[in-house]
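Same chain as my last thread, 63 residues:
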Amino acid sequence: MQQKKETRRPFIEHWQVVKAMLVIYDVISIAAAYFIALLLRFDFHYSEIPYEYLSGMSKNVCK
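reply #2:
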């Protein structure tokens, strides 16, 4: 008779890792899109971006 090999399930499934990576990717891409939109709006002059816009970005990203 053949004995069945006991297979252990990994602590974290592959789909859970993929899901976490996609969430991280979404957060980073949203923050980058907001910043790139600001740069486009102010002709790629970082010093011309008003403080209110940059502080609003940090409040939205750090929530």
